[in-house]
């Protein structure tokens, strides 16, 4: 028996068959139930756990159709349109699903109908039934009202006027029903009998293409999986070629015998359809995830899906020039690294129009496309930017002339450095269009006695930052005072108090701080 | 050990013959500066010393640093298709070591300019956190390497970094690989470095193993260099050097291991105008003999596609007319 907190009391949320035989019912208070049967075994409800279990089941049901929707808290919808023939017909499919789930230890009920509403009712009140399209109204008629997916209040209302089965509600005139119980009731009835189209919301987007293979004998070794990826992607290739596309994201779903589903995803920088390359990418992914991928008793279904595809540029191979191939191999390396490490790590720097050093360079994945003018860089001469920039400016203790002199010595990473020569400052005003609260930085290039060259900066000014907003405010206040100056004087008999207010010390500007930002050649 | 000069000469000729058949050149070594005795002395008399098992480096496959004494010491330059270790004694010195690698890298990028091959700089997160991330703006400014020609990669674990390094080392469409590590990890042993070295050999492109604060342990790299920073030269102005300023960066380079060279130490300087390393000249006389600004007397004009047109028209006069026009 499972309990749940509801309406400020512990109430029964779910019962097993034995508890039902003791004439307990859902919604009853726990105290009452205990009074009736002191030896009850009561477990607190675990919503998260239930959700995870239903999620895992939905994953498992992906083996029948890609369109699986959750019916929280206790159901799943499977849209098997166009899938039934793969399993030998609708009856065989339902039997197979029910049998396999029962083997996993679930008490399962299922119904098959042309509308989700009717299937819902069948699963709950006539498990195993299959209703043809058009027979819905007849099939639903004897069921109680909870078969209709309506709110409990509506159901109680209908029951209180004597409408206790679906057939009675359907036979009643529609207009008064809508007036009294709202539109939802009629909508649900119409959906159940198919007068209104209803679609389920699948949990996952349907892949563009997918191929799968089932095994009688489960497989478990990485080598077998790799080989099957090659086979599956070879099957996939003509379909991709026909669409003129290449895959940019692929997913390999591994269905373990006990119902667990593993999903491995790889993304590619360029559209891809060569089975060998797909296999190489999955090999990296498999070797990276080999610890978490536990084959257990083996996998009995493998599915390779193309999640996203892009137009694939068919290139006539050129006997003389092999230019394009080169970028491909760097791109392939980048893809393999991404498949293995799970994120894009091969990047190239891109210059951004910004004078703030850490903003001036951004990173874009993969290799840059070669440009002919790229070597036309300005001659180097000034040495004002370091070769290496620290990830974050690191705070340092600096002895320097106040307010704007160069530093004399500093302590960085628990080491004391004496500065012999310094150049600077190079003042950098924050970019007010990005960052209103930024502080001015004064950069110094310094060299210690051994020849190490560093890039230090002081953040903030001793006299405080010149801010546009306070200046504006001050100006407006002054203007206001000039306009209303006379009246203030006339009204205020004690000008000394006013002066007192003004002489309150303003908050001192924060002390400038020093940071280490980079290392020069 | 009395081996006649004739026998020595014949032996030498035979070794040359074997080297020719095998398609490799004998190694060249400068005579050791010490006072060798006996056989060694005789062998080095003609300036050629041959190792029995030594495989010489063919002349074409070196990357010259264009610093003559250094290249001479290394037998023409650094081996091109090989692993080269470059040590920075501390994380602070990583800037100087990076400068030396980039100086070589800018040479590499100039080798096949039409191919636009990029240079991959790969490192562990630890090394980049300690030494700083390579900063493309500074690299462009100092070494003239366009950001498009650089590729960066960073992996948190050493195993992954070495794996990317190995995969990249055999990629023919990279100009070179810089692999940056910190300390002496156990994983970086002879086997791991040999794998890198062999792949670099096969691809014919160098792999630079940039190491921060590492002990010198046995590796498969044929050459190991130690790079420490040296005080920068003052900036050169028209009035001469500007005191107290920081001009071209200095490097203190030590050849710590080489199969062909003796140990040596050089103080180098990066010349940004000619984009090459040069030996620092210390004595004042030679500094004065050089022009105040190193490089060409007039610097090449920067990108100026539309030059101003000359004003007016050029009108040609006959010599007599010109004289008449001048009032003569």
CATH class of the largest domain in chain B: Alpha Beta
Q: How does CATH name the architecture of the largest domain in chain B?
A: 3-Layer(aba) Sandwich
Distance between the termini of chain A: 72 Å
* Overall geometry of chain B: globular
Structural class of chain B: alpha/beta
Count of domain modules of chain B = 2
Shape verdict of chain A: extended
Number of beta strands of chain A: 17
Q: What is the name of the CATH superfamily of the largest domain in chain B?
A: P-loop containing nucleotide triphosphate hydrolases
Label the structural class of chain A. Answer: alpha+beta
Number of helices of chain A: 16
Helix content of chain A: 25-40%
Give a verbal description of the structure.
The complex is a heterodimer of chains A (521) and B (328). Chain A has 521 residues and is α+β, with helices and mostly antiparallel strands. Chain A has helices at residues 17-21, 30-36, 47-61, 90-103, 116-125, 136-140, 152-160, 166-171, 174-181, 183-193, 222-243, 275-288, 323-341, 357-360, 468-491, 495-502; strands at 2-6, 9-14, 43-44, 68-71, 75-78, 209-219, 245-256, 261-272, 299-311, 347-351, 361-365, 388-400, 407-412, 415-428, 441-448, 453-459, 513-519. Chain A folds into 4 domains: 2-44, MutS, DNA mismatch repair protein, domain I (3-Layer(aba) Sandwich); 47-193, no CATH class; 209-314 and 326-341, Dna Ligase, domain 1 (2-Layer Sandwich); 382-521, no CATH class. In chain A, helix 5 (116-125) crosses helix 10 (183-193), helix 11 (222-243) packs antiparallel against helix 12 (275-288) and helix 12 (275-288) runs parallel beside helix 13 (323-341). Residues 321-327, 488-493 and 495-501 of chain A have low confidence and may be disordered. With 328 residues, chain B is an alpha/beta fold. Chain B has 10 helices and 14 strands. In chain B, helix 7 (158-169) runs parallel beside helix 8 (190-203). Chain B is globular. Chain B has a 9-stranded mixed beta sheet with strand order 6-4-7-8-3-9-12-13-14, with helices on both faces. Chain B has a two-stranded antiparallel ribbon with strand order 1-2. In chain B, a hairpin with a 5-residue loop joins strand 12 and strand 13 (264-271). At the A-B interface, helix 13, strand 10, strand 12 and strand 14 of A face helix 4, helix 5, strand 5, helix 6 and strand 6 of B.
